[in-house]
Amino acid sequence: MSLLSGWRAALRIARRDALRSKGRSALVVAMIALPVLGVTAADVTYRSSTPSKAEQLTAQLGSADALFSSAGIGPVEVEQMPNATNWGALDDSPAEPYAADADSAPVDVPGTLPEGARYITEQGVPATVTTRHGIITTDIVELRTADPLVRGKVELTKGSYPDGKDQVVATERFLESTGLHIGSRTTLRGPEQTYTITGSVELPADLSREALYAEPGAVIAPWQAASDRDKKVLPPQASDVDWLVEGPAGVGVPWSDVLAANKKGVLVLSRQVVLDPPPDSEIPRAAHAGQSFEPVELELSAALVTVIAMAVLEIVLLAGPAFAVGARRSRRQLGLVGTCGGDRSQVRAVVLAGGVVLGGVGAVVGVAAGIGLTAAFRPLIESWSGIRFGGLDIRPPELVVIAAIGLVTGILAALAPAIVAGRQSVLESLTGRRGTRRSSRVLPLLGCVALASGVAVAVFGGTGGDTAMIAGGSVVAELGLLACVPVIVGFLGRLGTRLPLSPRMALRDAARNRGRTAPAVAAVMAAVAGTMAIATYTTSVSAEHDYDYIPMLTPGTVALVLSDASGVDQLPLARAATERNLAVTGARADVGRVWAGSDCSVYFEKENDCGSLDMVKPKGESHRCPLQGAGAKKLAETLSADEHKRLMQSPACTDEYLDMSALDTGSSKIVVGGADVLTSYVRLDDPAAAEALAAGTPVLLNSAYAENGEVILKAVHRYSDQDETNRKPHPGKAEVTTDRLKVYVAPAKYAATPGIRMIMPQKTADRLGLHTAPYGSLYTVAHTPTDAETQALSASFTQAGGRFYLQVEDGGAAREDVVLLILALFAGIVTLGAAAITTGLAKADAEADLTTLSAVGAPPRLRRTLSGFQCVVVALTGVLLGMVAGVVPAVALRLVDLSKAMEAMREQPMDSAYTPIVLPWETLGLLAVVVPVTAGLLAALFAGSRLTLTRRAG
């Protein structure tokens, strides 16, 4: 028999055997198809969500041929690259739109358009409009959204396009945030123009955009006219006009038209030019573009490589026992092959052919299902990613490779059962006796060695920053632990001595059939290990960010800030509005600004006329931050992360550590206030401090500025000719005064209070001849203000004069661990699938035993409970081992981060090297408790309690 004809016969036998054992075949196909499905869906999703060059142009141009815009430097000849992002004046002097002279001559953009071209204009303006809750600041764009040139850039989702100057359309995100809907009316504050929302639109390239779209001339021109009539109405701060241009039919906008427009100071983004750029010899800017547009290749991380390797390993491990069970159930058929003259290689070929057949089917099914599921969940994926797909980007070469991997892994899964089947004697196969085989004692020993060496290699790679060693060591450690799984499974049988019948039988069945149980446990372990690695790393990084986060305000507080001194009279109204609209708890703390000489916040354009007020830090080692100057680098290397942070928050270093705050209290960080600031914002409950403020003694929060209970206050008085208010009480030339103030020094931990270094009583400021004015109020709130609350408050501020704003401390914008949730769901699905397949194989492999149990009078529920506990044993064992295995790459990756952090700290000793390793306990709980219990319940639910008795064969 030739090799080709021999394989043809083997494939035919495998195909018939697969059709005869449909249940087992379906399990194998499912486990090969599941990872192929995931990789296919990931590939199609990534390709579809990554916009091509043509899709990026559509997002910018719609269906227009080009976008014309002024360079912003007047009618000066410019040079540009084909994509219009890199440009400059003809003499190569740096040219930026913000450097344009306000008096420069306007650019005649329409005069540069190709002859016969059609265009529409686009111009945006920030504006404040009313909402259901109050008011909100958003963008209003004047663009004829009904024009075909806009298709692809802005799409109507509901309702209709504007059909008049009093109508607008809104993005879906705007409607969701404001509580408005189609048919609602919104008013533009200032000119008080009212518009009706006639429809909702979306920007396919930016689904999260909040904006309104109106017809050209419907907003900006009436607003400007209202400003000209009434000087109380501020003029619109509109952006430059863009021209969406449709070139002559069949011509577009070629490079020659772009060069002609450049000569008049106009930049052009042309679809035709970007998709088919001219040679560098025809691009004047190419010689000194100074920018590379080469795409950046994606570098696979060690964690990703580990997960991919484990996915392939999962297929092999899960499908392997299915082929082994199939080979055992077909052993009589394989024995007949031997009696007919077939040698061992032909017996192996029959089993391997099963891998080819089922692997091929699984690969095809997985690819098809991956494409189908991506298409089905496309709206959800688009909403999550914030971008619409231009279409499903299916790349056949990549899908063929993915399918080939599924086919090859199916063959690999059948390799071990094929070798075992080839070693069986013909007599053993025909009689159905399995014989007695002892477990290998060498394999667990090799596994322990591989586990230890893999961990060592991964850790060494982590300390050296070598991601290849991390990936390799992690995979070797995984394989070493896999080799130990049979011993661990065998040990399980000893745990059920005193358990009830069903769990005791499940444990003993798992230990007795290690060839079936161990690979499934290992597959669950592999899936959970990859998830555990990424989840642990992500949780650790989040903990690091939380540790290093510097609050802009005291946590749980908000600040009502006066933006214009002319709004002082309306400050009580703003305070009442804040207390009415926000979840305020506790007492309000009013604070004021204090300064010397001219108010620099008002006369910032006359720097020489500004005054200043500062505290002078005394000289001496006790007042100097040890992480600055000589010896700082050596000291930083000896400190632990907690010691470093405590030192950074110490009074001597906190000025460098907390150099930003939502409270703009000047360089001195001195505020005028009373005891209520201590209790509500500083959180200092000290009667002695309150008494000091009442007696006129300032409370110093940063003790590094104190010496012998006093601080040095340096005031520089300068006076502007325009500053009548400041000159009257302090006539004469500029002067410098230095005062020593007796202060009450707060404990060192309060030096880290954001924005405040010292609280000065009003009577002290008056005694020193300093200027003061109300600054705002500080509140403690029960929760971070919502969109509705902030919009309602903004409306109240407008009614009170509009010279106020709210500063919020959100705790670093709490992150939703969506990635961790997805990883946990992925691992849970794989674990459920693996446990279900193992339970199915156990049923198929132990059918005779279950028949015997029924024959001797076992209750019907035993079949259900036994199936359930078999599933729990596999799922729980695999999950627990996977948790242990997944820590290896996570620790190694964090060691890489630690080495980078230490290097950065050597360069800048004030940078933190805190690199924690934090376990994702919520994810662990989901995997260790919910998944095994769910797997057991599902297995018990779908297992039949009745069994038709048949005569046992053999």
From TrEMBL:
Domain of life where this protein originates: Bacteria
Keywords: Membrane, Transmembrane, Transmembrane helix
Transmembrane feature ranges: 302-326, 347-380, 400-421, 442-462, 468-496, 517-537, 818-837, 871-896, 924-944
InterPro entries in UniProt: Macrolide_Exporter_MacB (IPR050250)
Protein name: ABC transporter permease
Organism this protein belongs to: Streptomyces flavovirens
